[in-house]
Amino acid sequence: xxxxxxxxxxxxxxxxxxxxxxxxxxxxxxxxxxxxxxxxxxxxxxxxxxxxxxxxxxxxxxxxxxxxxxxxxxxxxxxxxxxxxxxxxxxxxxxxxxxxxxxxxxxxxxxxxxxxxxxxxxxxxxxxxxxxxxxxxxxxxxxxx
Length: 145
Known about the structure:
Blueprint: E1 8-15, H1 19-27, H2 29-35, E2 42-48, E3 55-61, E4 67-78, E5 82-87, E6 93-102, E7 105-114, H3 117-140
Antiparallel strand pairs: 1-7, 2-3, 3-4, 4-5, 5-6, 6-7
């Protein structure tokens, strides 16, 4: 198997909230619907079973009016520390979000790992921008709180 580093997009973002507060923004479907996805997207969450093995079904609504159905399942959840999701529809990948405590808040490590280097490289430019926007939207959840 090809090295994980060669087939992953890795980002990090400091959020001025403690890990429990950031975890709540990952756990609560109404909050996830507000920040999930690249800039300009909105979401309808149909199912959000936030337990290992649980199903996550949503439709992302693009700024162009196009709908993007998504199906994922939760693989691992460690309260206030880690959420791992396998994306099953369309592009197959595993998304790992690690929450690292920091004296002033939380460092969020975002790793999106694809099955092959070729698959990742084909969409790497899009993925990089979309992931950065996704993290910015998550961080915006804590502005003014």
